[in-house]
Each structure stands twice: as C-alpha cells, then as structure tokens.
Amino acid sequence: MADRLAGQRVLVMGLGRFGGGVGVARFAAEVGAEVTITDTAGEDALADALRAIEDLVEAGRVRLHLGGHDERDLLGQDRLIVNPAVSRPWAHPLVSAARARGVRRTTEIAMLIRRLRDRGTPIVGVTGTVGKSTTAAMIDHALGVLNAPHALGGNIGGSLLTRLDEIGPDTTVVLELSSAMLWWLGEALPGFSPNVAVVTALSPNHIDWHGSFDHYVASKQIILSGQHAGDAAVLAPDAEDWPTRPGVRRLDGSPRIPREMILPGAHNRRNAGLAVAALTALGFDERAAAEAVAGYPGLPHRLESLGSRGGVLCYNDSKSTTPGSVVIAVEAVCERAGGVHLIAGGADKGIDVSSIGALDVAGLYTIGQTGDAIADAAERAGRAAERCGTLEQAVRVASSRARPGEALLLSPGCASWDQFENYERRGEAFGRLVEQCLGPRDRS
Fold first, then answer.
1. Residue 125, φ and ψ in degrees, nearest 5
2. CA-CA distances (angstroms) from residue 331 to 62, 223, 268, 359?
3. Residue 324 burial (C-beta neighbours within 10 Å; 0-12, 13-18, 19+)
4. pTM, whole model, 2 decimals?
5. Domains contained in the chain, number
6. How confident is the model over 228-247, as pLDDT tens digits?
7. Are 385 and 379 in contact (CB under 8 A)?
C-alpha cells in the first residue's frame, strides 16, 4: 500500500546533524515525495549529514536550499516537516507562513508515530530532564535480553522511519521524547500518548526554546495527556503529582534492582527502577526484568563500562562536558573501585573548572586547553596532578599507575573541540588507547 506521502511535495525544515532530518528526507524521497531541504546552516557545517543523502541529491530526488529559510520555498508545498530543534516554532516566520498558507506542519517523530499507530505497534515513551536516554536504552536492552522484538528511536538519534519494514505489531518501540518533540506531538498528532509513559527526573532546562519552565513542564506532560484506560504511567518523584487520565495505571521506580548492576551510581539505580517498572507494565516478570536491566552496559560515552582490564575497571564518560558531571561520575565509580584515576580537561568554554581539581582521587591527569587550570586548582587544594596535555599521554601514564581494584575514568568536564572533532571521537580514541595500554577485557 502506498504511503500517504507518495506524490506530495514536502519541505524539510532543518536537516540537522543528528540523523533525524536525514532519515525523514530519505524516507520521504523513497516513498515517492518531492523533497526540498532548507537549513540556516551551509554546506560546510552540514557536511556529514549531506554525505548521507548525497545519492538522493545527485539523482535529483532531493533539492537543497541552504544558508537560510525563505518563505518562497513554501510555494506549492503540501507539507512542512520541522526539525524539533527549531526554537519557538509557534513564532517562527516560516512555520507561521506555512500555517497561513494552509500547509500541513509536522515532524519526523509525529510521522513515525502515526505509522506505528496504524500498525498497532506498542510504544514506550520516555521523557524527563536527566536520565531519559539511559532509561530508554535500558528498557530497549532488556527487551532484547528477554527475547522480545524491539526498536529504539526518537531523541536518542537517527530515525526509525527508514526501518519501518523491520517493525511489526509485535515489536515494542521505545522512544526517547524531548520536550520539543512532545510539544510538536501536541500540535501535529493531538490525542496521542504512548502505551507506557515514563518520566525521569526533572529540572529547569531548554528555557531558550520554551520561554519558561512552566511551558517546559506543560510540554513534558503531553506524554500523559492522551493515554487510555489500561495504559501505564511510570513517574519519578519529580512527576508524582502529575495528573493521569481515568484507568491509567500509575507506577513508580520502586522495584528492587540488583546491586551488581554494570552501571555504577545511585542515579543509574534510579533510572533502572523506572526501566523495570516500565517492563512490568508491558507484562514482564519483575525479577527477570531487573536482571536484564542490571546487565545494561551503558550508552556509548556516558559512563560507559569498557570492562575490567588486568583488574583495572575502565569507564568512558567522554560525554561529560561540565565540572558537575565529573563529580557525579567520580562518586559513581567510587562505589566500585578502591581509587579513581581521573583524566580531565579539554576545550576552554570560560567556565570555572576548579571543582575538578578539588576532587579526592587516586590520580589526576589533565589534558587540553583547561589542563593547566585544573592542575593548578588541584595543587592549591594540596593534591598532585599530572599535566599530560594529550589524551594519549594521559592514558599511558594513568595506565601505568592504576592498580587492580582501582578504576581508570575519562570524564573530561570540558568540550572536546580543542583536540577532537566531537566527544564521540574523543571517547573512541580513549577506548583504543585503553586496549593498547591495558590489553583486552578480563574474562569473567
């Protein structure tokens, strides 16, 4: 059966850099739509994303209008597909012009959910400020361990639209949903909420997009607004007073989680409790669900366990780009290790990094533009620091000093762009260096 986009003319507003724009553009072109992409960024900034659709552009199936949005691009269009990163879309000139012209406005996530709903596919939606990526990934990992067909998508990156052929009515789809995605779902797909809604910890965030914390919370609450009797809402303490509709089961994150989780930290145990509650809402045995969640190794670059090597626990927390996140990482790893050898530092964003230097760790190895500032802070606190400069040197020195029962932790607390393209490249380099310096994972 032909997709509803076949033969339509669609304008993709915001190609972006995280895969959603690429996925929706490819999907629309492959089902027979005429696709134009507009983005405020130019070709250089979008180089990686453009390479992913180069074949479509060369074949004339996708046209590019980059370097700014122009209302003339709306002429003759049937649909405007907006990237959720576009701030305050209710007041954006191009979105407003589309509304005035009667051009239907939607998003990649709304298009995906509409098609999943048509198939009767069960959906678990996860939102919150902190922990939503990890909780969504925990649920998806556990579904695999429990031999249930599953797929993970949404704000965590990429697009499931191009994988629809793999998804059937027996597949459970887990979607990380940002506040912007949820606001758009309220506009483009009113009345929708997932079969199981999970809300993690909340705090003020993305006020630049929403304008106020109240608007941010109201957008998050859309995840519950369309649920039906028999659906489930798993609510962290920050959301325990949120209203749910009649007949919706209310659950918290209280299931007991084995202490021997792969991921360390009280915050990850809280995330795991929410994940287990969601799995029990789907009908899985609580004990089996808890065991499956406990085996989750972590998202890449987010306190990701690289295993034990020669008795030294290794963690890649390259996603850490603030001093506060370093403190959380060190506290979490200290639960498992007799001492932490911390590699920190990176691009200078003009923020105070002295709290990193004040940490009580077995060894501190500094890198990048902020390396000296961190080392200076450590020395003022009466602690030693090794000024390594590069990640390679830091891993080599730290590896030579770490002892069995201790941990080697990359948690930079700073951005990566002084020495790496992004935090992913930094984390990948760390993994290679750990392998070179400490060898393969220990056999369990």
1. -110, 135
2. 49, 32, 12, 10
3. exposed
4. 0.85
5. 3
6. 999 999 999 999 999 999 99
7. yes
